[in-house]
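Minutes, methods subgroup
Present: GH (chair), OT, SY

1. OT presented the first of two proteins processed in the latest run. Sequence and structure tokens recorded below as shown on screen.
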Amino acid sequence: MNQSKVPASETAPATREAVSESGAALRIDVFTIFPEVVDAYCTTSVVGRARRDGLVDLRIHDLRAAATDPHRTVDDAPFGGGAGMVLAPEPVFGAVELADPPRPLYLLAPGGRRFDQTVAAELVGTGLAGLERVAPGAGPPAFSLLCGRYEGVDQRIADHLADGELSVGDFVLAGGELAALVVVEATVRLIPGVLGNAASAGDESFTTGLLEYPQYTRPAVFRGWQVPEVLRGGDHGRVERWRRAAALWRTLERRPDLLDARGGLSPDEVRLLREHGYPLGAYGTGRAEWSDSESGMRQTVGDPSDRLEERD
């Protein structure tokens, strides 16, 4: 009935009938055996402020709610033997059906679709920069998250209860709670009004397919390290060009795969990098090297903000 992975075209919320009528711009339901842990984090910082301001309706459910034995057991030994315990279908199905959460319901699991900024934007029904709203009359977006635990979940939960799976990376966690918090915070902060500055979400890493440019604050000189002059000059046009060039170079140096995904550097971007003095290779890409005059050692160029000023 349900899929085990999340196709790119089906990540956006599928139904909105169960969304809160409180006027919140987003509803998220989280199912976990540690509701107090998830709730404690979600009362602080950006997510906590969004909840208090009524911008997000976050509901956290205890997976033990439908357990029928005195110990409220939700796990059992795996068929066929093996280490660890497995979340059992009966209490998990019962807890979800008791809460009747909004769909889609995503299981946090290592085999799921890789969660990134694009998926976050799809989940909240916005454009990638978080500035476009869902279609008028469509209702606020909503989705639910199911946190696995122990050695995993009974496969029937993935096959017949969850609508899809999400993964936050190729590493092992004790459970899905931290992964759920990643998804919650990444999506909540895309809701208009959550961040103090509406431009913040659009400026950050990954929202434009690039890493974010370097940031500085006072003092202008700290232990001999100076803030680039262009950022102190008050010329907003020059600042924007510098930031664009710095973001391109940082991405080229640290995450060239992001540039590959968007087809590489455009001719205008290559010209912008050269204009700002970045040492591109013969074909407009590649790491440059410089020689340390004191040590004589060859070194790869680091963060461009450490060494380059904008050229007029």
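2. SY then presented the second protein from the same run.
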Amino acid sequence: MKIIDWYIIKKYLSTFVVMILLFIPIGVMVDMAEKIDKFKENEVPAEAILNYYLDFTWYFGNLLFPIFLFLAVIWFTSKLANNTEIIALLSSGISFSRFLRPYLISAGVIALFAFFSGMFIVPKSNSSFNEFHYKYINKKSERLTKNLFKQINTKEYIFVSSYDHIRKSANNFTLEHFEENQLTFKIQASSIRWVEKDSVFRLSAYSRRTFVDEREIYFRKSRLDTLFDFEIDDLAPVNYKAEREGGSVMINSHLLVRHKRWTLPFSAFVLTLIGVSVSSFKRRGGMGVNLAFGISLGFLFIFFDKIFSVLVNKSNFSPLLGAWLPIIIFGGLAIFLLRRARR
């Protein structure tokens, strides 16, 4: 690589890091100002708050990734254009495609980072981030889920009137087992709870009805410790495994998240091409116009992403299309702007 390649790569990556370091503290301060009363009211430990804001950093960075990327590219590319450095490069015989090479290398570095964080860091951070909200910010009653009915496998259905994720317990539990569309036995309990110490389910006011031909065998016990072919968290409506086996439409939200882990790295290349295309030549109004245009496109990308996410979560819209359509739409925009910039 030539000196100009290293120069652009260093400028791109350093500006991207500066944008992250500039905006994330602002986001942290705004969030802290909003939640400081909740922290005092619920007497949240300092260690829990620190861990929360470490998770918030990944959550916020992942959410506004397109904005940071656009600003980084447009900021230093506009400076190059205003200093006529781009004109000098192109006038020396370097093609526009060759000029894009260091940008694409930089986008590749960021894409690898986005892929690694999206696969291994962000999911765990989001889980801890949401758990903190349920435990300290939102009321615990909001975490309760009500009137849940699910098919946990091909032969068994379960029902609970309410489920508490924190306590790992549910009320008014019912399990029905079918063989060839015939009910063979039915288990009921006033409550079911997972006992971590003994690794068993504890059922209170347990009863079982077994149906043999035309006879019914009834058994009852005040308390019973037993095992089932499911986990206690399978009772939660947001549990991936239970919904995948049960065929719930809510699986779409989980599939959408999985597909987005792949689309986010690709967005680094698409957004880089758009950023270079709109800021590689001088405009009346200077860098401010390019920045305003870049921020608008960044928020437009996020807007489209959220629109398709809502379609997936609220209807039978394909999660695959919901994740990839923003990339396809803005990829087409990138090609159009790139051809226009080359002229």
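Chair's summary of item 2: Residues 238-249 have pLDDT under 50 and may be disordered.
Next meeting: continue with the remaining queue.
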